[in-house]
Amino acid sequence: MDLSVSNRKTIFTYGILVGITSLLHYFELLYINLYVIICFLFGFCYVIFHQSNVVIQPKKRNLDEVAENYKFSPGINSLLKELKDSFERNAGHKERHSMASSPEVDAILEQILTFFMRDFVDNWYSGICSDSGFQESLKRMIRRTISAFSFCLSKVDWQELLTRDIVDDVASHFRLFRKAKEKLDLKKEISYNNLESLFFDVELEMEKNYCRDLVSTTPEYEIAYFKDVVDILLYLLMPSEDFRCRPLRFILRDILVNRIFVPCFDKLSNPDYVNYMIVWILSEVNIDTDAFILSLETSHSVPELEAILESIDEEINGLKSKDKGREFLDIVYQQIASLEFAAEIIKKRMVVLTSHPDLEILNEIEIGEQITSDLVQLPITVIMTNNVAISYFTKFLRKHGGQNYIDCFLAIEGFKVSTEQQFKALAGGEVQEKDVAKVVKDSALFLYHQFLSQEAKTRVPLDENIINKFLARLRNDEPADTWFEAIEEKLIDILSKENQYYPAFKKSNEYIDLLIELGILLASDLNKDDESIADEEDGKSISSLGSFTSLEFSQPSVEYLKKNLATSVVIEHLGIGHQGQKSFILYNVRVRKESSDETSASEWNVIRRYSDFYKLNQIVKEKYPKLKHISFPGKKAFNNFDTMFLEKRSTALNLYVNTLLETNILEANNGLDSIIYDFLTQKTYTGIKEGLSKKVISSLFNPVVTSVKAIGTVVTSVPDQVMDGVTKVSTGLNRAASQVLNTMGSKSDDLSDYSRVAADIQNETFSDNIPLRVLLLFVDEVFVLRGRGQWFRRQLTSLLHQIISATLGGSINKKIIDLVNWLTSSEQVVQYLIAFRESMWPNGILNTKQESRSLSSSLRTRLFARTQMYASIPDELRIFIGTNVAVRGVSNISDCLQNRHLNRRLIYVILERFLVKIFPNNRFDKILPQLHSKSPRKTTA
């Protein structure tokens, strides 16, 4: 180790000696080189700085003098300015692309775009740069995108989309909710989450290969779904050069998803907002006392009733605190009494709900009694002449045998109606006599081969003598609607006397359901003698049995009746009804109304008790003392059910009512027509009840109505060419025959109930009629009328046809097409855009206010929306389907709309429908199911 250290020292010593020797030897050469370089740099700097003053400065002064003395051409400045402006225009993309085919629409869109850029882009970009190039380029891209979207919208068949596809989606949504509730009832587990789960299970059954559960309930998956959809939309609509810019595309996608789509879906799926919009849409519907009281009596939410009760208490306190003049005291006391009446109804309902929390709508027996065997025994003539009653009887016979009898009876009724229509057409010169004779005979032969011949698969066994007499009349007599009269009487006789038919029906659950449906089960007069006038003052009428079963019969409104005074009435007793040990007489009031020119007529039936006539007489005598002289049949102490006495009473009642209907009496007594027509048209006749005044009802919902009116009406007014006239649409020759020639069979409910609703109307009568098709979709599904048989559905079709005819007039197809075209016209699009602009930028200023609504306000809005939905049902349809069915349908809609996730699912369905229709060539019908393919239900199915 010591040796290595000494070696290193030796080497270091020799190195230093070599370096010193080299420096001494070459020092002179290095010194000379360094000296030359320094002298050169010093001389160079000296020459530059010294000579610049001598050579450059004189030249600079000479140049300045030339610039001052020489005048340039003035065109160069303007040329430079034009070049600069042109460069800025081209660089900033300031050219404007038309966004719509209409200049009016384009102007509104441009204004909205200006507001958007000002409030959402300029406020942050101005801090980065003062140049407007970015904003102008962004505007250019938005204009071109909207223009492409507008072009796609112009190619959409809005008539089919609005009148069939959207209606199909909404009605199918309600069907899924109904099926989920039915499954939930079978499981006996009432749970919010279970209902949602069953709903999406049923949706998978209907859609077959996909389900929207994840996108409706999972926010993370929803955002991923929106990103995929927006990517596709940007690809289809954005200019290609802009779409290739990935950062721009990504930031636009995130803005659209997180700031537009998700917040909009949150808003639209909010149950309170949905109720709010229902109130706005139906704001023109007049709410009567009956609708409001019925909503209170059928509410199944205690907090909802508490919110209404709170409003009533506030209104009562407000009325008591106001110092009205003596002349207004009676009005104030009347309003307070009305409010207290409503409060009492609410309190009773709350007691029922707290005692029976699982109570179903209208199935509750409000007087708290159990159903016993002491039921009202309705005569079979009442059953066979009432839409609601005969549908329950048909349902019973379908289960327990005897369906052929009722099918044959209904077919004969259809034959009678169509024959009458043929004769009317013949009288009007619309058809030839030989054509009528052929159609009537063909229809009669069809019924014979369907039900009466030996080879008929659905043969009705009847006495051969009756059938032979019918065949003889068919061969020899002129066409008439009385050919089947003897057969029809025999059918009623068999159904009424055979124990397995009507007697068994009166002991079944279907009969109890019928009485509940008709509103006469366990009424306040169950233990009272109907013939005792003093006890009947508060009794309930049997008029809820509704209207006659004829296909053309429908009960018009009071206002429509009052326009035409050519009204006649025929009153006849139907038979004796029984309630326990009590009996009463039912009277059938057949009303016939003829037009002033006697070209058209309509009929309907109303069922009344003697007590109803007595109430009418008491009201008339009280309000019009001059009419006391009109004879009214009084009550007999004994033998009230004697046949001769009943015939005399019917004759006297006929004379009494027709006397009141005389034109000179109606004209001389102002207001009498309203009283009479209330008696002839009201479903349940109660005389004159004060109830709740419209002022009281409106005061309870003023906060809701006031806020709704603030939205403004988008569709300002329907033009005259769309909604003009009220004319009757006559039934053509082939259509009348087809009503009879249709088979009585129907599709399997188990299969069709899991399909889309639109699949069920392909073979419906008048299926080519657009508005009728829309109403059939909604009415059939919302009010669950599928199980009532094809006869009932044909009657429903005819009734809706009359309603649409009275609403839109003669050419229904043309009217509804005109209406759809008007709703999608450029003028209306301008109104829609103006409404959007005013809601987002009132007075040109961004609306940043978020109004918070209290829970009580939301609850009141929900009840008000349900009330308006019920009040919007036409009286004719309400009477036809029954109050119970109507209330159940409205309640199901309301319950369905209170679920945020299900609302979200419905909005997704509508959005996807729009995408498929707006971009028909871009395979959205294949792409969208793939986006839902990750549903766990599909993998486990």
Can you put this structure into words, describing what you see?
This protein has 941 residues and is mainly alpha-helical. It has six domains: 1-70; 87-153, no CATH class; 156-280 and 878-940, no CATH class; 281-329 and 338-368 and 697-877, no CATH class; 402-499, Regulator of G-protein Signalling 4, domain 2, CATH 1.10.167; 541-685, PX Domain (2-Layer Sandwich), CATH 3.30.1520.10. 65% of the residues lie in helices and 4% in strands. It has a four-stranded antiparallel sheet. Strand 3 (582-594) and strand 4 form a beta hairpin. Helix 13 (289-297) packs across helix 38 (855-871), helix 14 runs antiparallel to helix 15 and helix 17 packs antiparallel against helix 23. The radius of gyration is 42 Å and the shape is elongated. The chain starts with a helix and ends with a helix.
Number of strands: 4
Name the strands of the widest sheet in spatial order.
1-2-3-4
Oligomer: single chain
CA gyration radius, whole angstroms: 42 Å
Largest sheet: 4 strands, antiparallel
Which residue ranges are poorly predicted, with pLDDT under 50 across at least 5 consecutive positions? 360-373, 522-565, 705-749, 763-767
The rounded distance between the terminal residues' Cα atoms is: 87 Å
DSSP strand content? under 5%
Shape field: elongated
What share of residues is helical?
55-70%
Number of helices: 43
